[in-house]
């Protein structure tokens, strides 16, 4: 028993260090297994009811529904979601990628377990009722939250919980779409916003593990069945740049429509849910292709089976059917609809380009593929993740060169010309939340206080007999923690006590004097520091925030053994933290 406790304690302590690769690798594999199983359950919970009620047992065959059902289904689903959210607390209502980003930035990745149930229900309801939504957002939230709970359940340092959240994100995307590389890049670029060896190792292992579990059930096929295609001539390059500009403008419009609708989020959830449902239902009545995930429409666009009018109608319908409900505060996923939007818009531009320059144009499907990457990269402001997703979703390596070009151009158009931030930053800003992405903050958040704490300490009551004061210095401590009723109240440099004893030797030391002089360590000359506790799970960023909050210079790291029973593990000072990030 004691050996196991020691091993777990050592494991926790190692995770506070940046070079704990074996420990992080183990967490990555465990994260991948847990997330992979959760995503399998989630996908089955969506597909089984859809196969029962959609014609031909096809989970994407919303187009075959009667027109009135295409209106009723989104309205009913939206109202059901609204009624459920109405009876939940505000904290439990929050779900999705935006919540993951918020908790990772301001709460060290601590995600509430209760929100997983809300996310599961909202994800299933939105897709079964035919909303213009995807399964990526719910998958990311559930993967991140389950791994966050795993870290908190075993009292792991908060810096490792941040990594677990990244592992859950990558594994969720990998298991959902069979895209392990895109999962890793998305987790690092959008969620964790960092690229480090310590971060990459567990995230890659989590993504691979989840992909293996998913392939055991769904096979290794890519999400879209695309024939081999490539650009036909260098004349496609200027047209690709023009496409990037136009798609970047469409992405900016998507973000702007969403931002405009967020101004109505202060209204009660039920009228907002009814309005969102009716809006989606009305569009679905005339354009059934906007319903559900919509990957069947993407496949048709990639194969060049959709005409110009259908592609334009699908682009407009998908844009507003997705942006308006999300802006109104409905907890629907947007990554899948953005991919559909990009495929239809890219295909429409490809048809126009082929009509204008038939001798130099490529296959229509090629332009649809490029549109997918450009739209995803511009809306999410994640160019590398979009490129990897484009490559893995289509399995077409010929897409890399034009894909890189169009993604960069669309990103620049959305961000520089139209001054739009990513859709997630936009939604968080509407809630009054602004993400912190400074490199120093990222570095401090990646490291636990156990990595930096000074263990060369000794604790003692502030009052001590003069004859015993010298004994405190026998082991040459650097700091002395002064206690009052067993509670640390101040921090004294051991050098100050040594200096005082050198100037004031104990009375009667050689005379057998039985009178004992009591020394108050709070009264001797010295540079004492006020101290407050911080939990050993905390990161250096949390430590620095605590120092700023209380205007103090030092913290003592405590370990909780049982309720009301704690011990001091070490000391972290403001100077220690400043030296750490100055030398990073």
Describe the protein in words.
- The chain is an alpha/beta fold.
- It has three domains: 12-223, Clc chloride channel (Orthogonal Bundle); 236-430, Orthogonal Bundle (Clc chloride channel); 444-582, CBS-domain (Roll).
- Helix content is 62%, strand content 8%.
- The chain has 25 helices and eight strands.
- The strands form two sheets. Strands 1-3-4-6-7-8 form a six-stranded mixed sheet. The protein has a two-stranded antiparallel ribbon with strand order 2-5.
- Helix 2 (21-53) packs parallel to helix 10 (197-218) and helix 9 (180-191) packs across helix 10.
- It is elongated, with a radius of gyration of 29 Å.
- The two termini are 39 Å apart.
Keywords for this entry:
CBS-domain; 584 residues; alpha/beta; disordered N terminus; 3 domains; Clc chloride channel; elongated; 6-stranded mixed sheet; 8 strands
């Amino acid at each position: 028993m004691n050996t196991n406790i020691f091993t777990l304690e050592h494991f926790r302590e190692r995770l506070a260090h940046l070079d704990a690769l074996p420990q992080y690798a183990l967490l990555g594999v465990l994260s991948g297994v847990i997330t992979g199983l959760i995503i399998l359950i989630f996908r089955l919970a969506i597909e089984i009811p859809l196969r029962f009620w959609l014609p031909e047992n096809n989970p994407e065959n919303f187009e075959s529904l009667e027109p009135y059902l295409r209106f009723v289904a989104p309205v009913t689903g939206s109202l059901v979601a609204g009624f459920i959210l109405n009876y939940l607390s505000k904290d439990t209502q929050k779900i999705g990628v935006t919540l993951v980003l918020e908790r990772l930035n301001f709460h060290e990745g601590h995600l509430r377990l209760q929100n997983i149930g809300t996310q599961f229900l909202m994800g299933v309801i939105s897709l079964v009722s035919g909303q213009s939504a995807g399964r990526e957002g719910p998958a990311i939230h559930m993967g991140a939250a389950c791994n966050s709970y795993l870290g908190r359940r075993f009292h792991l340092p908060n810096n490792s919980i941040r990594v677990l959240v990244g592992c859950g994100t990558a594994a969720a995307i990998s298991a959902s779409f069979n895209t392990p590389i895109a999962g890793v890049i998305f987790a690092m670029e959008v969620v964790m916003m960092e690229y480090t060896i310590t971060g990459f190792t567990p995230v890659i292992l989590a993504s691979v593990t989840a992909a293996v579990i998913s392939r055991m059930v769904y096979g290794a096929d890519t999400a879209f069945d695309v024939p081999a295609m490539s650009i036909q001539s260098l004349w496609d390059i200027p047209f690709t740049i023009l496409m990037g500009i136009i798609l970047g403008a469409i992405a900016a419009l998507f973000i702007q429509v969403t931002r405009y609708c967020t101004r109505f989020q202060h209204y009660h959830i039920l009228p907002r849910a009814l309005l969102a449902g009716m809006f989606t239902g009305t569009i679905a009545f005339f354009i059934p292709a906007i319903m559900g995930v919509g990957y069947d429409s993407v496949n048709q666009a990639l194969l060049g089976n959709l005409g110009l009018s259908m592609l334009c109608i699908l682009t407009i319908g998908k844009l507003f059917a997705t942006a308006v409900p999300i802006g109104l505060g409905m907890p629907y996923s947007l990554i899948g609809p953005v991919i559909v939007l990009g495929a239809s818009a890219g295909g429409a531009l490809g048809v126009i380009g082929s009509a204008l320059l038939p001798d130099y144009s490529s296959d229509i499907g090629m332009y649809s593929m490029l549109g997918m990457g450009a739209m995803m990269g511009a809306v999410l402001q994640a160019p590398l993740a979009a490129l990897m997703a484009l490559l893995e979703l289509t399995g077409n390596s010929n897409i890399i060169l034009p894909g890189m070009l169009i993604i960069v151009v669309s990103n620049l158009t959305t961000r520089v010309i139209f001054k739009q931030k990513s859709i997630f930053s936009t939604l968080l800003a509407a809630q009054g939340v602004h993400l912190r992405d400074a490199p120093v903050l990222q570095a401090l958040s990646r490291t636990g206080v156990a990595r930096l704490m000074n263990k060369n300490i000794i604790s003692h009551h502030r009052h001590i007999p003069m004859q015993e004061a010298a004994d405190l210095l026998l082991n040459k401590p650097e700091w002395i923690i002064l206690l009052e009723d067993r509670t640390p109240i101040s921090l004294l440099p051991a050098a100050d006590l040594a200096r005082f004893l050198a100037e004031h030797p104990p009375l009667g030391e050689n005379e057998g004097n039985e009178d004992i002089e009591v020394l108050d360590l709070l009264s001797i000359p010295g540079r004492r520091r006020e101290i407050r506790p911080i939990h050993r799970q905390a990161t250096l960023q949390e430590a620095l925030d605590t120092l700023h909050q209380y205007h103090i210079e030092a913290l003592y790291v405590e370990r909780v053994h049982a309720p009301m029973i704690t011990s001091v593990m070490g000391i972290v000072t403001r100077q220690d933290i400043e030296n750490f990030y100055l030398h990073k």
